[in-house]
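Minutes, structural biology subgroup

Action item carried over from last meeting: produce the structure token record for Transcriptional regulator WhiB (Nocardioides albus). EB confirmed the sequence was re-checked against the source entry. Recorded below for completeness.
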Amino acid sequence: MTTDIHWRSYALCAQTDPEVFFPEPGGSPDLAKRICAVCPVQAACHEDALAWGDVMGVWGGHTEADRRRIKRARGPICRSCGGSFTRSGNNAVYCSDICRQAGHRQTKAAYDARRGGRAA
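Output recorded by EB:
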């Protein structure tokens, strides 16, 4: 997963009318896809859109429906390291115990920060 989004400053969409990348229902995404096809940061944009989840519009040359198909084909992605894995249970979101523990530490740190450092 790309965590540094500085690529946006190099994206061709930043120089284009945003409406092109958010077509009306039934509208065509073809122009947006053509722009993305020649964009120097298309791959980073595409990977970030997949990582962010349910984002609207054309990102990295793909519509929401395209991204759903790609995510289904890839299988689950670990919430901690971003790697793909085979689920051992229906609701698994981490690829290993190490990633699960890291994810729980991160969640606890975010919770503690929201509480202003007060003990639970």
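Discussion: The chain has a mean pLDDT of 87.
Next step: EB to file the record with the rest of the batch.
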